[in-house]
Amino acid sequence: MKLAIAAxxxxxxxxxxxxxxxxxxxxxxxxxxxxxxESVDYPKYAYLAASAVAKGEYDFGIICCTTGLGVSMAAxxxxxxxxxxxxxxxxxxxxxxxNNANVICMGQNVxxxxxxxxxxxxxxxxxxxxxRHQRRVDLLTDIENGKELS
Length: 150
Ligand code: RB5
Known about the structure:
Ribose 5-phosphate Isomerase B, Chain: A, globular
């Protein structure tokens, strides 16, 4: 298991605490920045981690900002990325089971460090259910590819 992690300045501390958690669990990751609390533009960091996941270089991405919203919007613009903002355990589980999400997004002002660690643990441990959900995920890909659904 190899993870891509990134955050803007608004979630620099959250990224740090998630990294410590991953270190403790012995989970490999690459930090795509940012590397300080200096103000940066979240789309760039979301893009760096999300595109590495889309290329298949990492199993999952963890991308954070103040709210989780901006980075999720940026990540979801990358082809092949299904990013979900998660604020509780149910969302972290269901977005894996049903949406086959490959990026979890969280907000430093929304989830505390303990909850964030729990959400990461659930997200990376939960399998996609496939079946009828595969058909729906395939439709997401169709939309991404410009196909008109009727
Ligand atoms: C940065 O101030 C803030 O806009 C960013 O962290 C994020 O929450 C955007 O959605």
